[in-house]
Design goal:
The chain has about 190 residues and is α/β, with parallel strands linked by helices. The chain has a single domain, classed as Uracil-DNA glycosylase-like domain (Uracil-DNA Glycosylase, subunit E, 3-Layer(aba) Sandwich). About 45% of the residues lie in helices and about 10% in strands. The chain has a 5-stranded mixed sheet, sandwiched between helices. It binds uracil.
């Protein structure tokens, strides 16, 4: 399956009630051969209006952190666990995450990134089935999954910005294969 096909399926998706309130779907964007995939939670208002991930306040903060980590935004694939905006930016419901799961799986299979950066608890839960961001962040699992803070959390608490930057740097280093990542097995968690 190609990215275009996945995007087409997402665009016509009616699997969950979020299809009724969305303005646009936000499938994600970036190169099909990206070495790093960044995974957020769900689109917010500006993302819903534009159809692009992380273009609002969190997106601007993410952009700053990517620059500081030496990563070009145009080199990474950015997407969310849920591809449509939950009303009032509430956390996505379990059923909504399940409805969207096959799209994320298809994106991960196609792009096959070296590193997947799980930004926040919703992303960590969706992929690793784990939560507890303070304990998980900065750690690498199964050689390629790196957990970090969601940029919206940094907008609320700027003290952790350096941590997000250092996790993104780590994602780059793991993707470049420069260094042993100290990867842990999920079964050891
Ligand atoms: N927050 C997310 O999780 N994703 C976006 O695309 C924007 C804000």
């Amino acid at each position: 399956m190609w990215l275009e096909e996945i995007n087409r399926e997402i665009a016509s998706c009616v699997r969950c009630p979020l299809c009724q309130s969305r303005t646009r779907v936000v499938p994600g964007e970036g190169p099909e051969d990206a070495m790093i995939l960044l995974l957020g939670e769900a689109p917010g208002r500006e993302e819903d209006e534009t159809g692009r991930p992380f273009v609002g306040r969190s997106g601007r903060l993410l952009d700053e952190c990517l620059v500081a980590a030496g990563i070009k935004r145009s080199d990474v694939f950015i997407t969310n666990v849920v591809k449509c905006r939950p009303p009032d930016n509430r956390r996505p419901k379990r059923g909504e995450m399940e409805s969207c799961r096959s799209y994320l799986r298809a994106q991960l299979e196609l792009i096959d990134p070296r590193t997947v950066c799980l930004m926040g608890n919703v992303a960590a839960r969706a992929v690793l089935n784990r939560e507890g961001i303070n304990a998980l962040r900065g750690r690498v699992f199964e050689g390629r999954f790196i957990v970090t803070f969601h940029p919206a959390a940094i907008v609320r608490n700027r003290n952790r910005k350096d941590d997000l930057i250092s996790d993104l740097k780590k994602a780059r280093i793991v993707a470049e294969g420069q260094e042993g990542s100290g990867s842990e097995k999920l079964s050891q968690l």
